[in-house]
Amino acid sequence: MSKQKIKCDCGHVNPIGTVLCESCGKPIEGNQHIDGNENKKLLNMRYDGTARRSQTYSKSIIDKIWSFFSSVKVGVWLIVLALIASMLGTIFPQEMYIPAQAPNRDPAFFYEDQYGIFGLIYYQLGLHNLYSSLWYMILIALIGVSLVICSLDRFIPLYKALRHQKPKKHKAFLSRQRLYSETEEVTDEELEKIKANLKQSRYKIIEEDGHILAEKGRFSRWGPYVNHIGLIIILLAAILRSTPLFYMEEYVWIREGEQKAVPGTDGEYFIENKDFIMETHDENDERFQAAIEQEGMVASNYQTDVVIYKADKPLPGAEPELEPMQEASIRMNEPLKFDGYSVYQSGYQLNEFNSMTFNIHQTDDAEEVALDTFTVDLTKPESEYVLENGFRVELEQFYPDYYLDANGIPASETNYPRNPAFVFLVYPPGSDDSEISFVGIGRNIDATGENEYKLGIDNFEMNDVSGLTVKYDRSLIFFGIGAAIFMIGVMQGMYFQHRRIWINRKEKGLLLAAHTNKNWFGIKKDIDKVIEGTNVRMVDDQQELDEIEK
Amino acid sequence: MDLLDLSSTALYTAFVLYLVATFFFGATIRDKRTDSKKGKADKIAITLTIIGFIAQIVYFITRWIVSGHAPVSNLFEFTTFLGMALVLGFIIIYMYYKLSFLGLFALPIAMIIIAYASMFPTDVAPLVPSLQSHWLYIHVTTVALGQGILGISFVVGLMYLIKQIDQTVKSKKTTWLELVLYFLVVTLGFVIITSSFNLAGYKATFEYPQGSTLVTTEYHLPAIVGPNEGTLITEGVMSPLFDAPTWFQGEDAGRKFNTVLWSIITGSILYLIIRVILRKRIGAALQPLLRNVKADLLDEIEYRSVTIGFPVFTLGGLIFASIWAEIAWGRFWGWDPKEVWALITWFFYAAYLHLRLSRGWHGEKSAWLAVAGFGIIMFNLIVVNLVFAGLHSYA
């Protein structure tokens, strides 16, 4: 390979590593191996024979890295690796998709329990969190690096070369194009006619000393680079999204009638759940009767009616003043948006207990006449209740979601009051000795069997709870832009072609050559139309000839 | 006749028309041999195909009117639409290349897909809240269209392989090709066995635990495999030989797995019968049909359909999908198995397009890729729904 800038016979000085002179296209001796032109009749025109950094320098470590990532082969390998890695992650559910009804959702337990030894290996390899794992992200990042380097390596020299095209080409360049013909005699009129025809076919014409370059659709050559830019923007957006400035997500359970600070807003906004509504499709609807009979009831709507309040910037310690800002209904597919935040209907819990009222009566009183009553607010149970008629009740234990665990010991399955149970210590008026009472739904256990007083559930209030996701995602716009650019680039590169036709005068006749990056049938039709009514010879498709010779 | 009956009749009509059209496309082979001009059979065949397609559109629109939402919301509706998209892809490519042989292969595959679809419950079902969005139509129809066009590249790739692979000796290639054809026969086996037992009205009910609740499921095929920890309730029917493994997470996995087993058994018997009749590999028997097609042309159509199908799939399966996921769930990407497999499909065709840049990957290698690509799409449609639990378990 030539070690210095190369001066071509035509006088043009080319950068090191050039395969075809940027100006006249003459193959540069000593560099033909780069694009595999040796011993071939046709020239490789993919990058117009420009000097690509990756093919030129290979001394320093940077050169080597650059060459590595600029290779399409390496790019394809990275894609294939990402593809295989992605498959691995779907063998068993990812951690976040461990089913809610699983006996134990702890991943250390779940995978081995459900899938045996393979599950254990899956978990130990970290495949249960594959898509957020470091090595998966590195793989995606390497694809990003490959995108950038591949594109720069090709785009920059190609752009320069196509900007400085000269109509006058070396014969060695023209005759080694796939489409080529020589004509002995051509009149000036014929040439004028060809020019007019080219213009009519919407070719852009550059002329120099009677030589012609007709070109169309050059922008399609940028298609691959444009779509790569789109992908790079998407990858960058993903990085932005990992910062709190661009992305925040919180989940909040809120009961009907409850008012809460909206999480993630620093107490700037409050939200009140006025009502949760769940509706089902009408089972008498003729259209759906058969399906509902088969599959059971189908929900038609999940909805939370809320009020959003804006809080005056609370002084430290002071209660914020709330100004109602917006009333809205949040449904599936219809999130609420306010001041850059979005709130989604994400979950619900029907009929949680809100409060329970108990009365105290004598154990042997068949009439169960209440001696005293008290109410426990299940959202804020107190530890002690002093009652009007002198009784005092201590709340010794509270199980919001009572069940008996594997060892037969009372426990709470969740922190939500779905099946509340209590252990009360009841102090009769004026007494310091207490009786122990266990009360739950449908249970009233007197552990000692000697209690003088008994507790009964007198009344309770229930309500629904809404699960809402609160978030902002300021990176979305960049994902959108990236995706749009990607689609534009793909179409630009795939559905348009860069066609060039060279017409060089030679004594009385002319040389005609043409190149397109795809759809050779189309450009042949173009040429046919352009030379119609002249003596110019139609081009030969030298590749077809090549193949016949084989 | 009410509208829903009209809808079903229209779909049935479309199916029959595709079948008849296939025979006419078959008749064009002789036309070519006698070297006559474009024959009559050719024109009749494409006309029938188009009428069939219109009939399928009638099915689609009337069903939409009945249910009040675009009929793409469950496995039956989606898969039927995929078959329709494949036919549309074929019609477009046919208009461009006038290649009647394509019809001989594309229509049977579209028919297998539609027949496969109709084995699933065809009742008009109401939409759950998460599906009540215009994005249902936009996302699902675009995905199906993209997959249908990519399906054409599969059909053409398959034709390329049938034509080009040397059938005189048994080789790795002939075996793999035979395997692909065997899968098609298994699908046919699925249709045959399912409709036979449906016609006979076979029923067996099971009860099995799902989390902490007991649910029941109804088998329409004798149970070779029962639901995990299930108990048979119906009396006087075959009891299962074994239970489905626990790691089958999809809804009603035991029943679906049972159906797969039956399909493989029926398909294998069917395949053996075909082999006994033909006395050679199916690939070898089909090869002479394609004698007059240019391999280069097949290669070009295959590539063309990927260049059209890939952007449509990207738009529907990744971009529209993300927009809808953002609106419905507040996250545009969640690594749900169906999403991941859409990404895998995208990676695969991206690799295909890059490999096409080098000459060594044209022709046969690229035909294998086109076949494998559609394999991934079918995997996402069938296996992901069967084995994996996810947000897309309805379709």
TrEMBL record, chain A:
Transmembrane annotation, as ranges: 74-92, 134-156, 225-247, 476-496
Family annotation (InterPro entries): Cyt_c_bgen_Ccs1/CcsB/ResB, ResB-like_domain
A cellular component term, taken from the record's GO annotations: membrane
Domain ResB-like: 72-528
A Pfam family the protein falls into: ResB
GO biological processes: cytochrome complex assembly
Protein name, UniProt field: Cytochrome c biogenesis protein ResB
Record's bilayer topology term: Multi-pass membrane protein
Protein localization: Membrane
Keywords attached to this entry: Cytochrome c-type biogenesis, Membrane, Transmembrane, Transmembrane helix
From TrEMBL, chain B:
Spans traversing the lipid bilayer: 6-25, 45-66, 78-97, 104-122, 134-162, 174-193, 260-278, 308-327, 339-355, 367-391
A GO molecular-function annotation: heme binding
Location (main, coarse): membrane
Subcellular location: Membrane
Pfam families named in the record: Cytochrom_C_asm
Domain of life, per lineage: Bacteria
Domain annotation Cytochrome c assembly protein: ranges: 73-194, 267-392
InterPro entries: Cyt_c_assembly (IPR002541), Cyt_c_biogenesis_CcsA (IPR017562), Cyt_c_biogenesis_CcsA/CcmC (IPR045062)
Mode of membrane association: Multi-pass membrane protein
Matching NCBIfam families: cytochr_II_ccsB
Name of the molecule in the record: C-type cytochrome biogenesis protein CcsB
Lineage, opening ranks: Bacteria, Bacillati, Bacillota, Bacilli, Bacillales
